[in-house]
Specification:
The structure is a homodimer.
Chain A (H helix, E strand, L loop, with lengths): L7 E10 L3 H12 L4 E5 L5 H6 L1 H18 L14 H11 L6 H9 L3 E4 L1 E4 L4 E5 L5 E12 L3 E3 L7 H4 L4 H6 L6 E5 L3 H12 L3 E5 L11 H13 L3 E3 L3 E8 L2 E7 L5 E4 L1 E4 L3 E3 L31 E3 L10 H20 L15 H4 L2 E4 L4 E6 L2 H6 L4 E7 L4 H6 L6 E7 L4 E9 L6 H9 L4 H4 L12 H11 L1
Parallel strand pairs in A: 1-2, 1-6, 2-3, 6-16, 8-9, 8-14, 9-10
Antiparallel strand pairs in A: 4-5, 5-6, 7-15, 11-12, 12-13, 17-18, 18-21, 19-20, 20-21
Helix pairs in contact in A: 1-10, 3-4, 3-8
């Protein structure tokens, strides 16, 4: 930028950097409060979730899960032994990503009265964002009240020589691929790795899952990863734990993975997916112009305001509190409300569970992993609760012993755990793993966020015969042991 | 009974009349408190629920629902267009009823140390039950502390001449039939009628559903019955509302139904199911010997003690508070605890939501109807809340607009409503209707029983993209309208 350059400039109450679900929700709330709001996005409005994460992954997984459910029911199972129609599943996935076009979401931004600026936005000083459009033209957006950074994360690839030439898949390619590779190596043991291994194995790939650690889904209770690993193996996935990748090359189109260090096995595949972590997209948003280090996670208080600033907010994955779409949207509602309250001089309700405090980020973050079995958890695992110094007891129950689970599927396998705070007699965490438990976790989210005492949970009667009756069994196990 | 007859007699702390799930749970609690307990049952231990209601009906319905789910998913749908394997579904149903044998449940009674008395039990005075065994031998059981009547209900048949000779189905035959009738007329519009119409239509019958009133499921929000009627019609059921039965005869094996009064249509069928209500099984339990009227519902207080008595309890359907297995079991836990507390002179916690008060019977009774779509509700409907004098607002949301619902099934149709108490800003009722909502209702049951305020429900974040995200949409709709 030179002094002679003629740059358009506009002033808004709020400038939102990044138009994923998080940015969209911040704008929704600031617009609802009557604040003029600009939204800047360099890629597709709707973000990672709409095009390369939640929506396409769940579109790929839903028929897989429904088929698995049907296969466990005599009278229906015989008809669903064959493979899924992969082309039809992919076409449905394409529909849910709007074929990677964002006209609909731009229309939505328009409908709430937010100004959309397509281009790469960078901070260029306090309360100032400079947008470089696709055509190279720049404009300067000044924020009277707040800039909200909602740029999310990108996949991290490991530091292996020559990896670029291999053209490995990240979550983006794994969710948007137009055909099932014959052989797919998945590296990682988290949500993306287990979900994509589940999906592509069912859609026709021979999947090998390479997990560096001992187990899968290691942010959940241990039995979650154990049950999912067992099911992946039964589905035909070659699950190899304790296995690191030493080198990856592509030879005549074939991916060659050498694992190691000790064994040095060689695995050939058609594609390789690295699902090995995320990094904040803060490396090229001008953090240096406001005295902050590019590429770092942005630490925030419970109103989502960046530590040490009175105008900069960081909302969603980029603040590293909980890398989940729904939690980012929750933060966005709170950040938008907090920005609006401060802009109008209204009181800020920043006490725990107040309207301007993302308290659930600490106590009640839910997650559903759409594998078969589904794994769903909210709040603290036993290990996390103990580490945090709570006096707790974990209560487990075998879901197969719940009538509703037996009716749901023959050979039902699953497990439930609740972690009880013994001092307050409330729940700190709940985990359900098993077919059909995905919609069950919200009951636990309400119990934890609502801090409903155990004595009252006895009066919340689960309908018979649903899988939810596991609640009764957990309470009984807590009472009797 | 003559004075010279030699009748065995035993004294127990507690005598439980009826060994369905309710009686079993009363005994479980009194035994846990160390009270000697006798359980009397004239039919199968495990009761209606295990053999002729919940278990077999859900075993029949689960494959139907899983097939319907699969049919709505491109990539899977083509394989499930054919009919279910009815024989396999019925065999699975037989498994879940233990082939109508109660050895397992008798073993369970034994394991908790309750004495089981097979036979017909009748009150023969205060605290006294006389059991007439299958061999005609009588014994007298005296209860030191309490007699708990848990005899449930039976199906009510309408007063139509010659109906006995028609051998109509009740819920018992409908859940235990060993083959699908070619043509089945179902009379009624409630849970049994809609569930059995759903099941048998899918299992091969041509079902005609005759409903006297305007709609189905009329104890739920009106849209529940509307959506279920629409789906039944699409599944091929001939749904005829506003239709009463004038006569039923069986001619050469064929059931002939004449509807009326005006039209007088004639419908032929192979079987007819009357699902037209329930009556308390109190007509032959000796109520007259304690100055009460046989055949009546037994009114109780919140500790499940019969009005005007200090030793007689009535638990489950027979008290007419909520004719649902899970609610009866809830009452049983509370009654058992209340009996035990009173027996030991411990304080009775009968305040609302106390350990000895079945408060949820008033405020938070949940129910799931396992039709396709599922219909699930808890608490008060809008009409009930208004009738009760609450200042309320109903908030509705189209479930098809929830991402998780769209992913769950193509062409998703469903609806959600929450009824908000405007004075206390808590929920009085929630209804979900749509595929896959059955496990979702427990979240609402916890919110209502826990009296979690709306302001706190905002912090209970639904996982994306589950159907549970309807919670967020309902809260937004409440906020914005």
């Amino acid at each position: 930028m030179t002094e002679t350059e003629n740059i358009a400039s506009s002033t808004y109450d709020v400038v939102v950097l990044g138009a994923g679900p998080v940015g969209e929700n911040v704008a929704d709330r600031t617009r609802a409060a009557g604040l003029s709001t600009a939204v800047v996005e360099s890629e597709l409005v709707g973000g990672e979730c709409s095009y390369w994460a939640c929506m396409p992954s769940k579109a790929l997984l839903r028929p897989v899960i429904a088929q698995a459910d049907a296969r466990r029911l005599p009278g229906l199972s015989a008809s669903v032994q064959g493979p899924l129609d992969t082309a039809a599943v992919l076409a449905r996935r394409d529909y849910f990503t709007s074929n990677w076009k964002d006209d609909g979401q731009i229309g939505w931004l328009d409908s709430i009265g937010a100004d959309f600026h397509r281009g790469h936005g960078r901070l260029t000083g306090e309360r100032t964002v400079t947008v470089t459009g696709p055509d190279g033209v720049r404009k300067v957006l000044t924020a009277r009240h707040a800039v909200a950074v909602c740029t999310g994360t990108r996949a991290v690839l490991p530091d292996l020589p020559g990896l670029d030439e291999v053209k490995p898949w990240t979550s983006r390619e794994a969710t948007s691929a137009q055909a099932a590779p014959g052989r797919l190596v998945v590296v990682g043991g988290g949500v993306v790795a287990t979900e994509m291994a589940t999906a592509w194995q069912a859609l026709g790939s021979q999947v090998t899952l390479l997990v560096r650690g001992k187990g899968l889904l290691n942010r959940m209770e241990p039995f979650a990863g154990e049950l999912v690993a067992e099911a992946l193996t039964e589905a035909g996935v070659n699950v190899r734990t304790g296995t690191s990748v030493e080198s990856v090359t592509r030879e005549n189109g074939t991916v060659v993975v050498v694992t190691g260090t000790g064994t040095g096995d060689r695995i050939e595949a058609d594609e390789i997916l690295f699902a090995t972590g995320r990094a904040p997209r803060t490396d090229d948003i001008g953090l240096d112009t406001i005295g902050r280090e590019p590429g770092t996670w942005l630490e925030v208080d419970d109103s989502l305001r960046v530590t040490g600033s009175d105008w900069l907010y960081a909302v969603g994955d980029v603040n590293h509190r909980a890398l989940l779409t729904h939690q980012g949207k929750y933060q966005a509602r709170i950040a938008g409300a907090a920005i609006s309250a401060r802009a109008s001089g209204a009181p800020v309700q920043a006490d725990p569970w107040g309207a301007h405090a993302a308290t659930a980020d600490h106590d009640a973050v839910p997650q559903v992993v759409f594998t078969d079995p589904e794994a769903a958890a909210v709040g603290l695992s036993l290990a996390e609760a103990e580490q945090a110094g709570h006096r707790v007891r974990a209560v487990d129950y075998d879901l197969a012993s719940v009538s509703g689970a037996g009716l749901y599927a023959d050979g039902y396998r699953g497990r439930a755990r609740m972690v009880v705070d013994l001092d307050r007699e409330i729940l700190l965490g709940v985990t359900f793993v098993g077919p059909g438990v995905g919609e069950l976790i919200h009951s636990a989210t309400i119990a934890i966020a609502g801090q409903v005492p155990i004595s009252r949970l006895w009066h919340a009667v689960p309908s018979y015969p649903t899988i939810s009756e596991v609640w009764l069994r957990l309470l009984e196990a807590y009472r009797d042991n």
